[in-house]
Amino acid sequence: MIKVENAYFKWNKSGPLILHIPEFRIRCGEKIFIKGPSGSGKTTLLNLLGGVSIPETGMVSIMNTNMSTLGSAGRDAFRAEHIGYIFQMFNLIPYLTLIENVTLPCRFSAARRQRVLSKAKTLEEEAKRILSGLGLDVTKLASQSVSQLSIGQQQRVAAARSIIGSPELIIADEPTSSLDRDVRSSFLDLLFREVRDTKTTLIFVSHDSSLESHFNRTVSLNDLNQVRLQG
Amino acid sequence: MSIFLLSMKSLFNRKTTALLTIFSIAISVMLLLGVERIKNNAKSSFANTISGTDLIVGARSGATQLLLYSIFRIGSATNNVTWKSYRDVATQPNIAWTIPFSLGDSHRGFRVLGTNGDYFKHYRYGDNRLLTFLSGIPLNDLFDTVIGSDVAASLGYKVGSSIVVAHGLGQEGFSKHQDKPFRVTGILHKTGTPVDRTVHVSLRAIEAIHIDWKRGARVPGRTISADEVRKKELRPRAITAFLVGLKSRLAAFSMQRFINKYREEPLLAILPGAALQELWSLMGTAETALSSISIFVVVSGLLGMLTMLLSSLNERRREMAILRSVGARPVHIFGLFVFEATVLTTIGTLTGLVLLCILLVIAQPIIDSQFGVFISLSLLTIRELIIISFIIITGTLVGTIPAYQAYRKSLTDGMMVRN
After folding, report:
1. N or C: chain B end with fewer CB closer than 10 Å?
2. Ranges under pLDDT 70 in chain B
3. Does B328 touch chain A (CB under 8 A)?
4. pLDDT confidence of A194, banded at 50, 70, 90?
5. Are the Cβ atoms of A105 and B323 closer than 8 angstroms?
6. A110 touching B (Cβ < 8 Å)
7. How close, in Å, is residue B28 to chain A by CA atoms?
8. Does residue B23 sit within a domain?
């Protein structure tokens, strides 16, 4: 699924080396937990794995596509089609409705829209299905503004958005760190249940080791990155 | 959902600032178009002060001076035209009609114009309109007078009122022709031209009130009463100016040449249209100043929009990052801001247009009666359409500034906002 070979990364040419990964592979359908304290280069790694940035030297290939061979517009298109994101917080656009927030990726990727419409009549129908799967009462919540939802509800909406249109890869950047401890587990359970049937690869980054048990494999960023950062 | 719809929803989410921006653009557009329209209408109203007249003839002086004293009743003539010269010109075969003007006296600040019955038959203004009577009849008796609507309104005269003409143009000259009072027989309709501020009497009456005067003063011991004067033959020796109507407009230039080369006396004939143009161009500076001010107001309206969009950039970084993460490209982010600017200026401009229409409907009768400027409520002129499109295009271009900023930010931020 993802192949990283001897990748070096700097923010700019004269800047310090941020990341050096000799080798890292993620298999298709793997649910991988990347553990690392803040400041260990998590964001940089996710930028590389999501095709936002490219390494200065070395290779990052996602689904057998070398990111360095795509231009920035090409990577944008690739990302829109194949990758879903969940961030730590503030995932939703306040002026869009619940359903509009969930179906947003389908507006930018024709492939994801096609995939949704091959199994559901409308985008809205699929959005509602996923939201209910994640335990949200759509009919009750749809009438209110998304900024009025609780953080837990907002994160579940974000998860629904990353899932819609079945992207091959979901990258979750500390999606549970703003949630209460007892909600975290149920959030993960729901997320896993939703991606179980598809062969979705899930990359989950967190500093919270208590969640490790849910995943196939745990990788420590400190082991992965050969650069020792101050921070 | 297109980027356009997205930007509309985003704008609606910030409706207070968006509305204020729209409002300030609307006000500035209203001002610009309002000034433009009033300017054009004032200009055409000015050009319509006199129409249907082919030549204005007076003693030789400047074209503007002749126009000012004969038509606008501003200033005075340096010299007169002798009756003989007037008759010489008036009897030329090309000439259809003439209207003699004799100026020099006044009544309580309003100029007195000595003329004859042809004035009411041939004098035209505006869109070739003849003078019409609000009440009463044209000049009949020797001491009859017909007054303009402003004279009647500001002095409270009615048909039958008696007035005394003062010698000269002083506000309240102490030398008055009080021995020969006039009776108001007619009041003219409002024209929006200097006719409204004119007291019309007959040429013979001008002679009559000056019969016992010499060189601007009463001749002592020689008084001729109003009744006696009626029996006398009153022939004007000179007039101030006269208007000429030709049988064919084509003859205007040759007639003008004839008059300007008249040997007996130095005369000047001017074409009213050309002279009015020349006079209006004197006011060009004020016109330009007014236009520049309103252009700057529009610029400040657009700058307000720029400020609003730029200041929203930071608070919207998160929004941009989310959009990027769901697949929006930097070019989409660029489009989002440009669309917002276009929508704001377009709505602002159209609102300004509507406000202007409402304002004009309310103000039109007031401006018409107060200043004699008729503001047409016509559809948009080509020029106005050009101005409107120019504003909208400029607004869109202004939008590219924050759009480019957002574009650059979203390139460097990617999907992660560090804060």
Report:
1. C
2. 1, 169-174, 214-223, 369-374, 412-419
3. yes
4. confident
5. no
6. no
7. 29
8. yes
